[in-house]
Amino acid sequence: MTLFLKINTTSIEPEEGAPDVGRIIEGEPRFKTWNAEEADGGLYAGVWEATPGKWRIVYDEWEFCHILAGVSVIEEYGGAARTVRAGDSFVLRPGFKGSWQVLETTRKEYVIKLP
């Protein structure tokens, strides 16, 4: 077994989903997730894609994101709205509450660490 893992979405069957109906603010957003790594201790890595729409988000986990394509607006309750697009990287920390609005279908690479 190699300890090097190349993330390649063509060799992974995506999981399809959507935000919980009670969290949707507008539109009919849909998700695709290519989870390439699931390690002991609650560590995940892969690629996520969402179609246009807006929904409420609540983070218990820590997540690093790198936007590959598209445009989204992430707004923290009581804070600023931030537009993210291809090339942007950021971290959402546990306790983050707000909304995620996809303006143009957005694809990101992610690494998630559960508490």
TrEMBL record:
Gene3D superfamilies: Jelly Rolls. It comes from the Bacteria. It comes from Mesorhizobium liriopis. Residues 38-110 form the (S)-ureidoglycine aminohydrolase cupin domain. This is Cupin domain-containing protein.
